[in-house]
Predict the 3D structure of the following.
Amino acid sequence: MENARIVAVLEEVADLLQLQEANPFRVRAYRNAARVLSEETTPLRKRVASGEDLTKLPSIGREMAAHVEELVETGELRLLDELGSEVPRSLVEVMALPGLGPKKAARLWKELGVESVEDLAAAVQAGTVAGLSGFGRKTELQLARAMTQHQRHRGRFKLVEADRMAAPLLEQLAVADGVRRVEIAGSFRRRRETVGDLDILVVAPRSEAVMDCLVSYPEVSEVRLAGDTRATVILEKGLQVDLRVVPARSYGAALIYFTGSKPHNIKLRQRALERGFHLSEYGLFEPEEEASVSTGEERDAQGSGRFVSGMTEKAVYRALGLPWIAPELREDRGEMAAAAEKRLPRPIELADLRGDLQMHSTWSDGKSSIEEMVTAAAARGYEYIAMTDHSPYLGVVGGLDAKRLRLQWQEIEAVEERHPEIRILRGQEVDILPDGSLDQTDDAMAELDLVVAAVHSQYDLAPAEQTRRILKALRHPAVHVLAHPTARKINQRPGMDFDLDAILDCAFEEGVAVELNALPSRLDLRDTHAMRARELGVKIVISTDAHHVRDLDAMRYGIDQARRAWLEPGDVLNTLPLSKLLENLRQ
């Protein structure tokens, strides 16, 4: 069992315990364990197999370690089954609806037999919810709206979706009367692959104009809160927006507070305490008893002491003896220690890339011609690209057999003559067949500059069989890159289940790079998987997998994901100049 599934089981245990109104400390223990393990890059099954003491991990006590071992060894957790026999597991989804919680969800179950969101919808339709003490008609209507939103967006929003909704909203807020600064914080600023809400910070001398601007925004479907300095609205597509107006001197501190993950912020506040300070969203303060001077203007609005810093993030971090930490790194994955020891990575940037090593044209399932793709890539300043149309295994994509592949090379040569400013590598995305063989002749692959191997079928093979399949492909001497390694699609299809460490170890041994697919619907590898690849010394390629010229813009999402994985330019193959790239591919 892989880490993500173990984390999901522990989260579900916490939810069921909460529904039973168990001891809150016990619930919190499972939440904390799930959080810690979700950030773990080493497969837990490997730790268990090696006999490692799991209690050395933060928040993992003996009971939690035993649960992890049971899950790894049996694939099941008896405790979860026991809890599920007492409380319907589907009630967890009901509990998560806005306006409900564990107590109300439990009452709906006990008194109306509601076990799922579908049951609740039927009860609301029948009008029986309003008759429950403590609910009423107003609550029933709120639940109806909540379920409508729930059905439309059961998962979090993909980052690209959040970007599209955020951009016009920021434009409107930026021109509101008196606005000096406006920025989105939270998981959006950390560039997580999915976003639950938008946390917006605004600096303005008067908050009224900002609030009026937000609540009058045409895409707002519901206003949940509109106070003096805070507001919460729901956009038409279901995304929640939380806005705060903050004073200029607190802007940096607030940006830190609302950007970092909870564990990152906890460690930062602890560091402040160790140095005799108090850190909050209002700023960094020296407690009253420590302050040698304290005027009314210098005091925190919360009465915490003398104001020390807060106007900019860099100033706050500097006051705590740390360099500025890039938002993408603020996940409590060792960034605090790395910052203190001056060994933070220099995260990769879009400008570091010299080319794009996976894209498609009208020769297979692409929507743009080779020349159109080349022109667009050259306009982005690329030194090289790889044209990697599909192999023929999946008939629906119109892939190229060896004969058509050689015909394509003739067009590539003609286009390259017209575009001497960019090198076009002859490549192909070759299917890994169910038995691990490759969907192209050895002779044809030997003539390619780049062979990108990928799984596009039978995603549900047993983990051991899927692992053997991919390992066999990686050991083929023609393969240069393993594309979108887990084949997941965000909010649509889970990744394949296989031994990722075995795949990465083999990739290192064979000199095969793994792809970080930049398409916002994929972002595959995950950030934690890419971190693991980096730890094992595996080179990474960031590619767009573009099927249209506009898809080339997706590269920035690949960079976001790479930065979250602590990747530096030297970890990524397509930061190399052409001569060194070709040398690496030949090797």
